[in-house]
Hints:
Helix content: over 70%
Strand content: under 5%
Shape: elongated
Distance between the termini: 61 Å
Number of strands: 0
Amino acid sequence: YGELLDDYGTAYWRIGEYDKADNLFLERIGKYPDSSFLARFLVAVDYTERLNRAAEARDVILPAFTASNVITRLLPDAYAVLLRLSTYFGDLPSIEKYARLIMEIAGERNNKEALRFAYTHLARFYSREGDIENAKVWLAKADELFGEPGRHTCALAYIYFYNKKYDLAITAASKRDHPRCWSALSESYFKF
């Protein structure tokens, strides 16, 4: 019956009927809490991305990693949900922990997008710690991954901005014609 709930929930998920999918997944979690990896993952994604229910998303997904039916190919994505939630809650130790777990798994599978996600979050982590140099190292790694120097210039501008280095934020944001850079540029000028 648990697999049936997963199958029906996934079918509803794929056609965008997220409330129906969530109900089936929550039933799966209620009846089979120790074997509900997929259900926990997809409910957490929906709670995070659509419903803005961060605390509930975290409560739902945390037990997923000890489930008896972990889907290893989804682990980087599941850790990414936890990484987003940790960023949302400002939980710096968890940001580092989940970014490094994603890097470990994604590196083995050469999943560049997951690696980029982890690198940029580690840059944010170090930025919040006030370690701009380490933040720049992780952004450079993200740039190298795609062979696009300066791809994360806007993120660098915000790192400078959040560390009250407004002159450096203005310089960095001026190098790229992108809405995120324009935002960093205008906010930095306002504070400068």
